[in-house]
Every structure is written in structure tokens, then in C-alpha cells.
């Protein structure tokens, strides 16, 4: 990792130590918080994490989370301190975190190891590095592309361009490029003149992330309208990517810069009574867990403690069940998939619990498998087939469910659901808007 200093030379003199002994490496000598070896010592090798790992299930060369996490951290020897390159095959789905009964900080270990591997061992001129940097910085590209959305959509939707992307960059040509909206969420927000409701005691700051801004502004609009319907003052601070695709590609310097900007723009609102709301479960995961785990920046602890997924927040603070009991929508049947990052925040059942009694709606949970795309993982040419293998259970369950419209909170799960089944996909907030606004 770029912030780490060179470990001090603690090599014992001859005779101090037997040949089979070793000194653990001081990976982060400047910070006890980032030394993950105590967490590694909590591992009692039950292998629950390995069993839960969707990548290990389809990739025989991937040694699994136990190796990537506690084994690498605990067993590093000074002369063998480099991170194994298989860390780049971890998709950062974080299912192993959820599976560990012993509180081992697996994804923190993986993210830290991946950052260290990219910093120290990856050729910065390699195709893999350039491709990963592009995918990790989707928000920057989207900002440029959405200046001329129709032109960008035509270019990126062209099959020849997709073939070139695959050959030159290693971005799969099998997937349909997500179209940019002709008006971003932020453009809509500015056009309407910002908040329409003012409140001293019901205040939220919306973290829309990249995808709701550039690709699916209808999700952001739904979020604003639903919260205003409940009397909340919604503000939309300037923001950068949550960092999720950067963590997954070991681009921790990029993620730290983005986290710093987000800290500057959001942390100061908390003492004024605002909580932070995200419509994407990977964004809320990042602000809640990954920021404080990985970065020492003023305000990130406060942000972590005050961040919520949008529907979770309403369930905590409002009587949503009663509001929905009096509502109805036109007949619709949904096949709902809980994203891995929603699962990790304990939110995997909430959409089904909320909507199952809504008049006009049938909703079915399509099981606990990973969708397989995991952000940027399924966009990599060499991972595409594995991504589809991981997603096969979900596709199968969707096709056997009554509904032929998908529902999920995660934008990339939504891409994978649509890609694997051809279904239209809705965000739960869109159904909430339809029912309540
Ligand atoms: S984060 Fe996901 S892909 Fe990575 S090791 Fe854990 S379970 Fe496997
Ligand atoms: S689930 Fe936790 S305790 Fe079990 S092997 Fe994995 S890291 Fe170790």
C-alpha cells in the first residue's frame, strides 16, 4: 500500500532464531490500526469463508478468502513479503466477511493486500493495470461521456468499438455498455431548484454515487420524491465516487482522494442534523465499512456512523408498513435479488418484507447466490465466463419465479440480471415512489 513505509529491518542475527522460526513483518509500522495480524490470529480455520466464496467455487486457481486473508497476513515472512497475485481475482463481494464467525477482518485484509500488490508488483504500463484503472474510475469517464450522452451511447454501443475495447483493453465485448441518461440526476436537481422541503429536524444528505447520477437518474429522483413526501429536507452535496470499484481493483490512492473529497463535503453536515443516505448498497457499504477500515481521514468515522441505505433509514424512522398498507400499485410481479453488499449490511430481506403485502405486488426472493458481476469483475474479458457461471443460479431462479421484472438495489447486479435474463430491472425506491408519491 502506498501509505506504508518500508518495514524496519528486524532480521535476527545468526543464532538468534532457528531456521523454521520467523518474525512477522511489520507491515504498517506507523499505525497499529492498520496492522491486521491480530485479526488474523482470530482465524481458527473453520473454512466457512472459503465455502461462501463465489469466485473460489468457479475458479480452481483462486485459493479463497482464508488464504487471501489470515494466512497471508499471519504467515508472511520478511523474505517472502510480496502479496500473491491471486488477490486480483477476489471480486470484493465481501461475502466472506459475512460468513466468518470469528470476526476476522477479511475484506480489510484483501483490500489492503490488493492495494499493496498493485502499488508494488503491478506493471503500470501493463494492459491489466490500464484496464483496471479505467474501470475503477468509471465516475470520471462517465462525467466526460455524459456531456454528449447520445454520441457516447452510439459510440459505446457500436459492436466494432466493443470488439476493439476487448482486444486492446480487455473489457469484455459480451456486455451491453450502460447507456448514459440525456439529463443527469444532478442536472435535474439543479433545474428543479434544489430542495422543495425545508425542515429543522428531518434532514438527509443524499449520496447518489455515479450510476444514479449518470445512468439511472430515475432512481435518484425517486429517492428525493419519497423522502420529501415524508417531510425530509434533502440536500445533494458535491461528491465523488464512493470508491467501491477502486477498492476492488487495488487503486487505493484514487479511493483515498475520493474519500477525502466526500469527507469534506459530507462530514460538516452531520452536526447540522443531517444523516447520509445512499440508494446503492455498495456506496453505503463503502461509506460505512471500507472508509474507516482503510483510511485515516478526519470525518470518516462520523460519516460511517451516520450513513444508511435509503429504505433502511425510512424503516427505522417512519412507519413504512402502515403507509404501504394503505397503498396500491398496478399489478406487477418481481424477482428480487439481494446484492452481496446488502446482505453484508443485514438488508437482504427488507425489500421482500416491505413489498410482499403491497396491494398489486407479487415479489419473490430469488435466493442467496451472488449475481456474479461484482462491480467491475464481470467486465473483465478473462472473468466474463466465470461471472456468468457464478450468476447462473440467480438467472435460473429468476426465470422460475412468477415475476418477469427484476428488482435489486445494486446497479451492477441490475446489469447482470438484465444481461442474463433479458428482464427489465427496477430499484425498490422506484416502487416505493409509485406506491407513496
Ligand atoms: S470478497 Fe468475495 S470473492 Fe473475495 S475472497 Fe471474499 S468471498 Fe471471495
Ligand atoms: S471464516 Fe473466519 S475463522 Fe473461519 S477460516 Fe475463514 S477467516 Fe478463519
Automatic annotation (TrEMBL):
Recorded superkingdom: Archaea
Top enzyme class: oxidoreductase
PANTHER family, sorted: ANAEROBIC GLYCEROL-3-PHOSPHATE DEHYDROGENASE SUBUNIT C (PTHR32479:SF19), GLYCOLATE OXIDASE IRON-SULFUR SUBUNIT (PTHR32479)
Pfam families per UniProt: CCG, Fer4_8
Residue numbers spanned by region Disordered: 1-24
Keywords, comma-separated and alphabetical: 4Fe-4S, Iron, Iron-sulfur, Metal-binding, Oxidoreductase, Repeat
Membrane among keywords: no
Enzyme Commission number(s): 1.1.5.3
Database matches in InterPro entries: 4Fe4S_Fe-S-bd, 4Fe4S_Fe_S_CS, Cys_rich_dom, G3P_DH_GlpC_su, Helical_ferredxn
Any one GO molecular-function label of the UniProt entry: glycerol-3-phosphate dehydrogenase (quinone) activity
Keyword Transmembrane helix among record annotations: no
Domain 4Fe-4S ferredoxin-type as annotated: residue spans: 79-112
Source organism (scientific name): Haloferax larsenii
Descriptive protein name: Anaerobic glycerol-3-phosphate dehydrogenase subunit C
